[in-house]
Amino acid sequence: MVAQDIALELPPGVRYALIGPNGAGKTTLMNLMTGMLAPDSGQIFLGGEEITALRPHARVRKGLARTFQINTLFANLSALESVTLAVLERDGHAHNWWRGLPRFGAAIDEAQAILDSLRIPPTRETRELPYGQQRLLEIALALATRPRVLLLDEPAAGVPKDESAALFDAIANLSRSLTILFIEHDMDVVFRFAAQIIVMVGGRILVQGTPDEIARDARVREVYLGKAHAAA
Amino acid sequence: MFWLCTLLPFVVTPAYLSLASQIAITALFALSLDLILGYAGIVSLGHAAFFGVGAYSAGLLAKHYWGEPLAGLILAAAAAGIVGYAMSHIVVRFRHLALIMLTLGLGLLLHEAANSASDLTGGADGLQGVKVGTLFGFKFDMFGRTAYAYSLAVLFVCFLVCRRIIHSPFGLALRGIRENAVRMPAIGAPSLAHLRKAYTIAAVMAGIAGALLTHTTSTVSLEVLSFGRSADVLVILILGGAGRLYGGIIGAIIYMVARDQFSGINPQYWYFWIGLLLVVVVMFLPNGILGGLGAIYKKSK
Amino acid sequence: MLSSLATVLFDGFAYGMLLFLLSVGLSVTLGMMNFVNLAHCSFAAVGGYCTVTLVNSFGWPFLASLPIAFIAAALVSVVLERTLYRHLYRSSDLDQCLLTIGIVFVSVAAFAWFYTTEQQSARPPEWLRARITVGGINFAGYRLFLIVFGLAVTAILVLLLERTRFGAQVRAAVDNQRMARGLGIDVDRAFMITFALGGGLAGLGGALAIEVVGLDPTFALAFLVYVLIVVAVGGLGSIGGSFAAAVVLGISDMAGKYYFPWLGAFLIYLVMVGLLMWRPLGLFGKR
What we know:
Chain A is α/β, with parallel strands linked by helices. Chain A contains ten helices and eight strands. In chain A, strand 2 (45-46) and strand 3 (49-50) form a beta hairpin. Chain B has one domain.
């Protein structure tokens, strides 16, 4: 039992951080939400509509997008090709095998705009991009699907200090109408960006609240720092 | 440019026109495999199934009803497409060893079925009495001119179609699946639907190649459904380089010419050299000949 | 009616033991390293031809040649693993398939060169080939020998896997290679030994198969399909799975040949396709 008794509600437009020790079930929860894992019981709703039975790609079509903790990119495609593909899939043009790609200028332009806003060079192959830009490309791909809810799995993971500024700018500039849930271990990032923090331990939700509430919560300090510190 | 050269055999080596037809047919078959292997990443050890379905469809039509080759082509394409579409529902769900075994198993099943249904197919003796009609008034004679023109034209058309597919959004989606199958659903892509479509299109093309063989040789042998044929086309594609559009054609040319040249030699030695070539290609030229040439080209820049 | 059923079951089981010997090595090494070694049956052929040479050219007794067949096949497999296979552990399935198919082709040609394309035979001693009659039904002594031998090998393998430290290492590596390495297990060495063991068993199978199905250069290809079916259906990395699948395949094949000869191999392929669709990881597969 990796995750159980999760009852979670994410109102629109709020930025949530999901924190907890390793193995708490955070990524599992994300996999359940996106449909990569099927729950043994329970239901999932997106914008009032039940999506429990939907396959992962159908959920994306409904507006639920995610990024991966480990870069899961199209290594030999360029950034522009990758994001254009995402746009084409979104608009339902990817089944078209007769018209050439250059004819889909609108999709290419939109992809270019997304890449520009995240300052990712469009024409180099993905595997040649520096790690920080690859993390940004992860986000670009998710944004290209025009999500209503965005799930970010440790967006800053492994990003060296000199590249993290660009990443944080990008996250800060994300549209305010998006609901964002991000898993993060870096507490600076968490406290800087999150309006609400959810703490998971041992497959369950321990507590949920504003950054101040969480910072003062004794149980949270116990989880992270041990019992002796919680008393202090 | 390349395509102009394909007209040379008419003039330069008229004695080899029937070989040239066979090369064109094999090239088309390899091209169809490239679509699913090189671009979508499906490893199939049973692609001859569609080749055989096409060959038998064309043969049966010519034998019983109508000798018009183009009608045979259309029927073969339709039959292979239907079988391909049906099989695609099974095949695209699997990866790794299960996928390899499934494609192998399905191919073997079809071979056995054709072997057993000898009333229809002639069994191990093959289909006799296939009477192929004229093509726009040209007879399929032993000089092979009609055969080569026919095969070459069909190959060219299918090549153009493939090129269109590669450069279309669908082609990009296939490459996406090959590059990172996990990411595709995460960007809203219905990967299985895409793969089924690619598999069906590849089946149609393989079926057309099979029909070409029937029309140019006026016979259908059980061998068209054999594992040997599936394995051969795989070797040919890898030799030339998968995922590179021209790879199947280059591989077919080299393989068929070599086989023709060495046909006098004991078949054992042929397999020895092919085996050795495979080992060398996999160890040192993982992207086939075209890949190797491409790498040399890049380095020289 | 009953006697033919008994014969079919008996012969099928014996054939299954043969298939088991030929397949178990591939199943375990596939489960451990995920390396698709389609040349596995070439190792079997090495063992077979070794026995042929020893028995026919050097007058060795059949049983005495078996250990040599095992060792020869094991040696060849280790050499191949160290020189070629090792470089392709991270390569795609396709590349591994192609490399090993290339090796099969080369081996087929090599055997034809040295031994001609004729069927070879290496007769076991008379007492082994005797016919035994139980309850009015005739049983071939050699097949009984195969069954006993196969069961003995299975027992040894299971003991090896469950009771020795080496076996524990193998099980760990099959389960989770990365973790096994992290625990300090020398996975490469364990794999090399397993590979040799598997190849040697295949060699034994090849030698034992001579009396049942004969031996010619195409053996490596002809039996490959059956071996792959056993491995795919039984599940990678599972001795029990290989055993079960081999027995099922052996009996089905015999039953098919006896009761439905017009179906040919159709039944086998249909069963395989069906089983794989239901359980793509094999009946006892771990991944």
